[in-house]
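Retry 2 of 3 after timeout on previous attempt. Resubmitting structure tokens to design endpoint.
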């Protein structure tokens, strides 16, 4: 649905607040590193699980940021984006008929991931305004066939950042019931207002039962590069590496080489990027308020779910359809992120990873349409 909304946005010349990709440039040093890597002939297959310098840079980054000690030779697999990392994890770690618990709303891809792996999903609701979960519902979702919990923090589509206490609840359950966690941390560097990202793999008891997934895509505004990674114990990464080998052989070599430069940008660049996202978030919230759309301010990532009940344009599909065709603003219907469509009928998702001018124009179009 997300990518279909992008297609419709292009068709109707609408501003694309549907798909989560920036309309501003990637950092110059990162682009130059990619051009240099191609000129220097890093143009052939890398070894399947990734360019060694890039894996070493990832290990150094996790040591610096999270005090996590990783062996770049035995615990990292570079993939084509976190999309492939999650798919390879489902295929490489699960057996058919296994069950996986996922919090909902959820990022769309986990459904197809489970279908392709022959696994099935069990859902635990996150409830607004804080998008919290009920620990009893989480416990009740775990059955005899449950192998793993999918975690995504900072969270798409709600912007929730799971707190240390919430993570501790999940850890306790995983240890008690011998479960794995597949954690999608692609928005790890985008948190606001003192909310901090804590990788669940760094918590006691979780190192060997976690597959940590992230990517260059969002942190460095290079969603088209298709470079991500999975981090797991040697026992788990073997299956992931094998699946990755047959899915894609390797991620793009020159862009992995440039990834070393991206990870080397340093903390100042990250602080600058977050400050800019904070401005975009403020403008997005102002636009939603002006349009009389109720929304909970996101704690992280770059999405916000807005309540469309007051607009009188119909359900989420009808509203998103009219917004893209008539207002010239593309969003994603809320039902794309939930297991039972009726739970998302009153919501649409806005992505605010756009220039301030783009967001301002989207705001003008929305108010003109709604007036
Ligand atoms: N995971 C989440 C939670 C996302 O929101 C997205 C993209 O929007 C992805 C994964 C896809 O990441 P990548 O481009 O690295 O495959």
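Retry 2 succeeded. Sequence:
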């Amino acid at each position: 649905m997300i990518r279909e909304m992008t297609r419709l946005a292009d068709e109707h010349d609408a501003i694309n607040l549907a798909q989560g990709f920036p309309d501003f440039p990637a950092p110059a040093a990162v682009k130059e590193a990619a051009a240099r890597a191609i000129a220097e002939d890093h143009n052939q297959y890398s070894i399947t699980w990734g360019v060694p310098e890039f894996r070493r840079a990832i290990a150094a980054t996790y040591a610096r940021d999270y005090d996590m000690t990783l062996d770049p030779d035995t615990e990292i697999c570079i993939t084509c984006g976190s999309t492939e990392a999650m798919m390879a994890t489902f295929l490489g770690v699960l057996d058919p008929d296994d069950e996986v618990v996922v919090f909902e709303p959820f990022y769309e891809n986990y459904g197809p991931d489970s279908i392709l792996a022959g696994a099935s999903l069990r859902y635990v609701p996150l409830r607004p305004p804080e998008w919290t979960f009920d620990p009893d519902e989480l416990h009740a979702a775990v059955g005899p066939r449950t192998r793993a919990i999918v975690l995504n923090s900072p969270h798409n589509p709600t912007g929730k950042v799971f707190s240390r206490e919430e993570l501790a609840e999940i850890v306790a359950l995983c240890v008690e019931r011998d479960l794995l966690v597949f954690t999608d941390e692609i928005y790890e560097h985008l948190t606001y207002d003192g909310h901090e990202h804590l990788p669940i793999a760094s918590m006691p008891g979780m190192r060997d039962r976690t597959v940590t997934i992230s990517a260059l895509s969002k942190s460095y505004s290079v969603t088209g590069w298709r470079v991500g990674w999975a981090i797991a114990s040697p026992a788990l990464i073997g299956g992931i590496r094998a699946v990755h080998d047959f899915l894609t052989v390797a991620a793009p070599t020159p862009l992995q080489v440039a990834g070393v430069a991206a990870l080397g940008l340093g903390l100042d660049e990250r602080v600058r990027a977050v400050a800019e996202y904070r401005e975009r978030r403020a403008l997005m919230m102002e636009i939603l308020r002006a349009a009389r759309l109720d929304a909970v301010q996101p704690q992280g990532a770059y999405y916000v779910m807005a309540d469309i009940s007051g607009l009188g344009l119909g359900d989420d599909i009808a509203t998103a359809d009219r917004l893209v065709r008539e207002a010239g603003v593309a969003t994603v219907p809320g039902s794309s992120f939930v297991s039972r469509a009726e739970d998302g009928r009153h919501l649409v998702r806005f992505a605010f990873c756009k220039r301030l001018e783009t967001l301002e124009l989207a705001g003008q179009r929305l108010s003109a349409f709604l007036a």
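Attempt log closed. Residues 59 and 71 are 7 Å apart (CA to CA).
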